[in-house]
Structure to design on (211 residues):
């Protein structure tokens, strides 16, 4: 398995490289430290999987992933993060990345890579075959919308499009507290842990509705 790592945290790169290369099935072909490196290194080495830091120098990597995936729709990109950056990860998932893992969970990196190579997706320690495949009984019965008010539906739609709380408030002429409360209430109602699960939940409903 040929891997390229792009992260501007030199210590993190060194640690990941050491762990990955302890597995006889994995070769780290190259490492980089910027989004510009990511595109160039992917084109040069054509890795089986690109490990790409979510944020480098304060900027997100969704556009970098998009650029690579436009050139190669089969590219396997797995995001790295020190914390769950919900808005950025949602945007990247829509572009086609294969999930994300937390860098501090070093023991999960090798299993995550093998999972992605097998065609599955990884969300931290959760493995799914398709991030937006309908699985929830409520969604299969097309009853989600009836369980949501019009406002709740509009808010989670914008969450699924990667809008921040402040952007949603501006778009819907609400204050941020109203948006936060609405998101929290919907997540509690459907037993969702974070905005990423909320976005996947919404995409699942759209998928079911289209079917």
């Amino acid at each position: 398995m040929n891997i390229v790592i792009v992260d501007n945290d030199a210590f993190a790169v060194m640690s990941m490289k050491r762990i990955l290369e302890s597995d006889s099935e994995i070769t780290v072909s190259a490492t980089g430290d910027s989004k510009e490196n990511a595109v160039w290194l992917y084109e040069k080495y054509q890795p089986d999987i690109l490990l790409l830091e979510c944020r480098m120098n304060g900027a997100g990597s969704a556009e970098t992933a998009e650029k690579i995936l436009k050139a190669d729709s089969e590219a396997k990109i797995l995001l790295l993060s020190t914390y769950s950056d919900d808005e950025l990860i949602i945007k990247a998932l829509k572009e086609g990345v294969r999930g994300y893992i937390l860098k501090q969970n070093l023991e999960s990196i090798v299993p995550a890579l093998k999972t992605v190579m097998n065609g599955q997706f990884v969300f931290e320690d959760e493995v799914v075959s398709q991030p937006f495949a309908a699985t929830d009984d409520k969604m299969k019965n097309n009853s989600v919308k009836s369980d949501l008010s019009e406002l709740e539906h509009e808010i989670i739609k914008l969450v699924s499009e990667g809008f921040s709380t402040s952007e949603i408030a501006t778009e819907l002429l609400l204050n941020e507290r109203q948006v936060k409360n609405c998101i929290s209430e919907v997540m509690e109602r459907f037993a969702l842990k974070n905005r990423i699960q909320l976005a996947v939940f919404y995409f699942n409903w759209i998928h079911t509705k289209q079917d």
User: Anything to note?
Assistant: The first helix runs from residue 10 to 21. DSSP finds ten helices and nine strands in the chain. Residues 29 and 45 are 7 Å apart (CA to CA). The radius of gyration is 18 Å.
